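Weekly structure sync - notes
Attendees: PM, LS, DV (DV joined late)
Agenda: review two folding runs queued last week.

Item 1: First target. Sequence and structure tokens pasted below for the record.
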Amino acid sequence: ILPMLMDVNDIMKILPHRYPFLMVDRIIELEHGKRCVGIKNVTANEPFFQGHFPGHPVMPGVLIIEAMAQVAAIMGYLASDEASRKKVSYFISIDNARFRKPVLPGDQLRIEIETTLNRRGIWGVNGKAYVGDTLVTEAALKATFADAAI
């Protein structure tokens, strides 16, 4: 059993996302502003499996990237000042995304985020997603905190 730093209720106090778009179930490791590890339990009843793909359910790669972004946003939020904590995290770029293995119902996705940049309100991270010890997805992400769009 993995130690848990934050459960889904703690995560929902930070992220504005809600079901079905909340892609992080818990945070199991956190090194302030440097590294964060989150878990997404991929269940057969996820709404996206109905259409992606019938008879051969595969988690969409874009949602794995979104899970990475949400783990990164949690890390950034916890390392930010009070003014930034009142804002929303927005993508700036996604680079070098690689999808190595499909993620299937019943898999547990372990999302590891490491900071590569934190300057002038821009966060850069390298994200890796694993199922067990197998690397399934990786990408370099950049985001910033900004006022919520109306």
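Item 2: Second target, run right after the first with the same settings.
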Amino acid sequence: MVERGESSVPPVRSAATLVATAGHGLLLFGGEFFDGETNECFNDLFRFSPAKQEWRLIESPGTPPPRCSHQACVYRDALYVLGGEFATSAQFYHYADFWRL
């Protein structure tokens, strides 16, 4: 994972995962935004630093496709993402996959 230089606040979303990391703050992955008409799924990864009160966008090679309603945990300096779903007004898909970021 590579942290971008600029501070970046994540867009509003639901059904994302937010996990604590040892000494690094919080990691936010994926989720969805629905405004009653349009649904957008995300596959972005953000780190929140409580000490700096700042969000940073993280680039990770091999990031999974956009998803929401997944599970995630941190183990030994990696974020693991399991399953979830992808939904738009035209399609719906359940994932049964496992990713290491």
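Discussion on item 2: Strands lie at 2-7, 17-21, 25-34, 39-49, 54-59, 71-75, 78-87, 92-100.
Action: LS to circulate a short write-up before next sync.
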